[in-house]
Amino acid sequence: MNVQDEPGLSEIDTALHCAELSSPFAQSGCLHESYETDSRESPEIFTHSSAEIKRGEPTQSDTNVVSVTMNKNDEKKNQSDGGLADLDDEHSPASHVYVHENQDTVSESSSSWETCNSADSVVVVVQRECSGTKAMYPDCPILRQIDHQKGCVMFWEWTEHLVEHRGPLNHYAKKFVLDCRYMGLCPDNTENTDIAAAIHATITNAAAKVAQLNPLLKCDVSLSGSWAEGTKIGGPNEFDYKWAFVNFNDSFIPEETEAHPFGYTRLRLRESEASNHNLTRYVDTGGFLDSRNLIRDLYTTINDAIFGGGIIASECLYLRKHLKVDKGSISKLAFRWVGTLYKDFLIEVDIVPAIKPSLWTPKCIEINHFGLITSPKESNTSVVLKTPSPRFVKNWNAHFRISVSEYEARILQSIPLPVLRGYILLKSLKDTMYMPQIYDHDQVDGLMEATISSYMLKTCFLHELKAAKVACDPTLELSRDSKSDEVSITWAKRIIERMELSIERSELKSFFVPGVNLLINHSVTVVNDQYILEAECQCLSHLLNVATQH
């Protein structure tokens, strides 16, 4: 990057501040091994009717207001109490509320996506004030939330107001994503690489110490997830490290049956190892690996190694949280970085135990996708000790997720960067403060967690890559280090169009595991929160269009 192109200190400070903010969006997807077991409640809470989303109808002419509907009887009751209508939910913004009984006064010239109109209801408009349109990372209440009520998702205020933020949004998309050498949102600076190097050295030191303290638990550690793919966005605040047990690879045989959840397998101890007491203590009465004791032993040894000193590789890095050993499932380390640009910066590191059975290609996954992976057996498929929900799977502690992260990383590492940046751009926009959450006035909790995950977008991207490979798309023939904003934007649009089509069909097939629909929770047979998916997809599509307008 040329000196004149480097971001100013104010931009860096703003970007770093934003990078420290955790995304409010929940990640989902059946095959994303970096996350804890799904802790959501029973499937009943996911049953919603699909909302009708209207386009091209008139909107309120008032600036900075959002429409919600209320029953006329409720409105009369409020009037009889001598007060204005108030929204009782604790998440609703504190504001004055005005009642418009005549919707004929709305402006027909205003461009919008929808408005709700019912003979049995009146419109309540909630005043919201913009916090400023010049900040690249705005905390604007108008952008923060879109309301849903009585089957309608009210986009119009957000879409109209987003245009006022277009300048900073364009600058963000261009300077911090399309022109960024490494990742979206982060400006290029040496402290990013310093943090990554310190974390890697710390994890490597810990693995070496674990091998000394307990040779049976010797592991090969490798970076996984978005860092391995080259698709990390935001600050260097999250890392995934796969810990592959060296002494277990040849001792267990994967057992795949139709009775297992899609994408999971059990690991049976070989008969030749039946007298090996070092291994039999980690198997159940049926001879299958039980993850609980193994994870506890590994995590306890890692904690002991770190507490023993000499492991943390930088004076700027401080341990904040050790691994939890009481629950027998995947946990994470947490550190604080106190540096020059980053002040008291929180970093979380997922420690993902894994086993790589020798000479094994799972029956349930499809690897050869028209040359996207040229040599599928160059690296063994790993099984991560990530277990399914105990609510739906018997003997959950003996079922482990088949990891496809190595295959995903190899595909994304091999494609031209202009193509890859299309996915990074869309993924980055999804996690910005421009992307709203849906506030559902018909639900008890109100504020809905995001349902479109980065993994869903990546799956759409992989499907589009396969289609492009079959069609001999010339963009896949570009050199790895070439640059083309037009190509990147085109690919971002292809991904969101694939997402829209999948939501319309209520099916997003896993790229590697046939039979898995990423839009369906494994406990039910219907798409969860269809109207939220539709609304988020439309918001993301519109956000992409505004962000890339010249």
UniProtKB/TrEMBL annotation:
Q: In its keyword annotation, does this UniProt entry include Nucleotide-binding?
A: yes
Record field: compositional bias (Basic and acidic residues): 33-43
Which molecular function term from Gene Ontology is one that the record holds?
ATP binding
Q: Please report the stretch or stretches of sequence annotated as the Mab-21-like nucleotidyltransferase domain.
A: 229-413
Q: Name one Pfam family in it.
A: Mab-21
Q: Which cofactor does it need?
A: Mg(2+)
- List the InterPro entries hit by this protein, alphabetically: Mab-21-like_nuc_Trfase, MAB21L/cGLR
Q: What keywords sit in the KW lines? A: ATP-binding, Nucleotide-binding
Family per record: Belongs to the mab-21 family.
Give the protein name, as stated in the record: Mab-21-like nucleotidyltransferase domain-containing protein
Source organism: Acropora cervicornis (Staghorn coral)
